[in-house]
Fold this sequence. Notes:
The structure is a single chain. By secondary structure, the protein is mainly α. The protein is built from 3 helices and no strands. The longest helix has 17 residues, at 68-84. The termini are far apart.
Amino acid sequence: MRTTLTLDDDVADYLKAQSRLHGRPFKQVVNDVLRRGMAPRRQGLEPPTFRVVPNRSGLVPGVDPLRLNQLNDQLEAEDFAAESGR
């Protein structure tokens, strides 16, 4: 079937590059890309499920991990005070 199709510039550039790269006619590249896009997903090709594996943090009991920035600020202030007092 013959039809007229208007492509965005980036899509046309990609298809032309694929045509040159593989040495195949533009028409064949367009048809192959469209067929791949219409094909149902094959089973077994789904990406694996992402899984988080927790690690022990090694925090000392009594240290609130939600207030670590405050602890860091306090330690920096103490270091600054010690350096200024020399």
